[in-house]
Design a protein that fits this description.
Elements: H1 3-13, H2 16-29, H3 34-45, H4 49-57, H5 62-67, E1 81-82, E2 85-86, H6 93-109, H7 114-117
Antiparallel strand pairs: 1-2
Protein name: DUF2200 domain-containing protein
Pfam families: DUF2200 (PF09966)
Length: 121
C-alpha cells in the first residue's frame, strides 16, 4: 500500500463528529457563525441541518458522511491548496470531497463573502 493509499484510508475512517467541532471553532474564532458553517456544508453536500445532527450523533466516518451526500455540481469550481494539496488534482474522490469541505471552511474563516464561497457569482 502506498503512502497516498494510507493517507486516503486514514481520512475515510476519521469520524466527521471528531472534526466538526474543529471546523466550528475555526469559523467562530474568526467571527463567523454556526449557521454560516451549516450553510456551507449543506451547499456542498446537500445534507440538511436535521440530517447533519443525526450524522454527528451517530459519529459516522467521513466515508459514511459523504455516502449520504449529494455533492453540489459546482464543487468542481473549488480550487486551490489545502493541507499542501491542490484540491482539483486529488485523485481519490472521497479525499477530494473532504478537502473541498476543508477548503470551504478555510474560506469562511478567512472572511470570504458567502456568495463567493458558494460559487454563486
Amino acid at each position: 500500500m502506498s503512502k497516498s493509499d494510507t493517507h486516503d484510508q486514514r481520512i475515510a475512517k476519521m469520524t466527521f463528529a471528531s472534526v466538526y467541532p474543529l471546523y466550528l471553532a475555526k469559523v467562530e474564532k474568526k467571527g463567523r457563525t454556526k449557521e454560516e458553517l451549516h450553510q456551507v456544508i449543506e451547499w456542498l453536500t446537500g445534507i440538511s441541518n436535521k440530517k447533519l445532527q443525526e450524522l454527528l450523533n451517530d459519529s459516522v466516518t467521513f466515508e459514511t458522511f459523504f455516502q449520504h451526500a449529494s455533492l453540489n455540481p459546482n464543487a468542481k469550481l473549488i480550487t486551490g491548496v489545502i493541507c499542501g494539496y491542490r484540491v482539483e488534482e486529488i485523485e481519490n474522490p472521497l479525499t477530494q470531497q473532504v478537502r473541498y469541505l476543508d477548503k470551504l471552511v478555510d474560506e469562511l474563516a478567512k472572511g470570504r463573502k458567502l456568495d463567493k464561497i458558494l460559487r454563486s457569482s
